[in-house]
User: What shape does this take?
Amino acid sequence: MLNGITVTVTAKDRAKLAAVVADRNSPQKHVWRAQIILLTADGCGTAAIMRGSGTSKTAVWRWQERFLTEGVAGLLRDKTRGNPPSIADCAARSAAGDEGCAGNAL
Assistant: This one.
């Protein structure tokens, strides 16, 4: 993170993040994200966080920013771009004269 920006993690949020790290059934990506925030809250620098979580600098920055804007819930969900159109959808659209799916599903 940039100098002068601090991340404050409440006791409740720290407990949630620690539970994610400790749970052997947590998806690995959630564990990495939680580790990034816990190390940030402990005052570690970006290089130390990268070593501790095994992620890149841009990943560290991305998840720090997401935590600041959305909290713990933002770390535990994935942004999706939506589902690609199905073959049936593309067939119906092309029958109607729409060329939008021409190279995607058919």
